[in-house]
Amino acid sequence: MAIRMITSRLSHSSSSSLAYLFQGRNSRVATTAALRYTTAAPIAQDPIKPSVNVEYTKLFINGQFVDSTSGKTFPTLDPRTGEVIAHVAEGDVEDINRAVVAARNAFDEGPWPKMSAYERSKVLFRIADLIEKHNDEVATLETWDSGKLYQQVATIEIPMIVRILRYYAGWADKIHGLTVPADGPYHVQTLHEPIGVVGQIIPWNFPLLMFAWKIGPALACGNTVVLKTAEQTPLSALYVSKLLQEAGLPEGVLNVISGFGPTAGAALCSHMDVDKLAFTGSTDTGKTIMSLASNSNLKPVTLELGGKSPFIVCEDADVDQAVELAHFALFFNQGQCCCAGSRTYVHESIYDEFVEKAKARALKRTVGDPFESGNEQGPQISSEQFEKVLKYIRSGIESGATLETGGNRLGTRGYYIKPTVFSNVEDDMLIATDEIFGPVQSILKFKDLDEVIRRANATKYGLAAGVFTKNIDTANTFMRALRVGTIWINCFDTFDAAIPFGGYKMSGQGREKGEYSLKQYLQVKAVVTSLKNPAWL
């Protein structure tokens, strides 16, 4: 999931996007761009050594760091090299049970849900303050574990994490029910109550950002949480767990388990004492989670799943600007974004010009160590994802799309892939239907508005879309016609703590962020009291 943070460190205008962060470097790195793309020089050298030590590798249960019950650990790897960073405790069924018991006790008997909403807000503010204070350490761990750019994490993602937590801290004492008029002598009110113990599972592409998206509204509403990290990226959440203690979060309110989906994840989803689930990840895994939830205690589920988002470039577009924005929409975060603009539809009148310029922009993209200033792209997350992306590239070639540039790995070490651009892509090709989750841009041609709307909607996904046009009538037509949860017009990946995010169709259910997400973590109770001789009704 890509993210844009409006902050004075990046921009003075709310209309800018993450593209601002990268465009400013182009002139400075232009002289070395071709070298970095066509050779393995920046990748073959020894990777930059991170400036932090990995101190927290155990499970965080009931306010303490503990070993897994089995004593098992698993390695978390550096995507730059494939080498082991650290061995992390491997949570399993018994560890999920321990964490759920801790969360249940904290909800039923602990101070958290009984604490005033204002006091809860102060704890959330302190958590945000501590993450901001430890920005550099957290950013280094996140980059080391995930391969994403250090500058991206330190100057965009962590400020957004802090903003999200402060946003929900502000909401904590503004959650309330209503007084409802009813026929007859009755006083009717609604209470908005926390659901209870919430199970949350976060992905590897934006580990700590999704951590904040999940825990912010859940804790603001007074729930307790058991959160499972992605097995590829456990380190940042475990580090932040230390900060929870320092912030004064009561024991058992938030428990963090590192482990694997078929074991720890399945146990969390099936647990009879978990009252609600929230998951971000693939659509196939989302289906499994819904099945486990329904087959246990019918717990409600919020899902933010996959996407195959169209990015539509109309005939009136400024081609240079459209090329840059489309490039950003796809390649940001190594293409590992659920809402990536991975189907680039371009009007036939400007198609050839767009393709040539998109190819040239991809060739300029600097790929290398994510800790090195000036690089725009790091490695894919894992060997599995690396091979998956290369498989889709081979599929694109075999199905008859034109490979304009890229198409294979960069260097011989780590999981780096050359920025890849395909033209002459057809709607039924796998590169146009499947979520690749990598640096592969597919450019398709369209003739008119009705045609591209029909084609853009002809997918099982409905997460997001981008539209690039100067015509307000055209923009308004797309705004209502595209069946997606978010539409960006002349921008992309514009996010804010207050803007809801989620999908139509098989891209999920429910919404993250904003006021809408609070509803996912609350129960509504109606209370009806008989009135004797009321003065008024």
Automatic annotation (TrEMBL):
Keywords: NAD, Oxidoreductase. GO terms for cellular component: mitochondrion. Residues 65-527 form the Aldehyde dehydrogenase domain. GO terms for biological process: carboxylic acid metabolic process. One of its GO terms (molecular function) is aldehyde dehydrogenase (NAD+) activity. CDD domains: ALDH_F2BC. The active site is at residue 304. InterPro entries: Ald_DH/histidinol_DH, Ald_DH_C, Ald_DH_CS_CYS, Ald_DH_CS_GLU, Ald_DH_N, Aldehyde_DH_dom. Gene3D superfamilies: Aldehyde Dehydrogenase, Chain A, domain 1, Aldehyde Dehydrogenase, Chain A, domain 2. PANTHER family: ALDEHYDE DEHYDROGENASE-RELATED. Belongs to the aldehyde dehydrogenase family. This is Aldehyde dehydrogenase domain-containing protein. It comes from Solanum bulbocastanum (Wild potato). The lineage of its organism: Eukaryota, Viridiplantae, Streptophyta, Embryophyta, Tracheophyta.
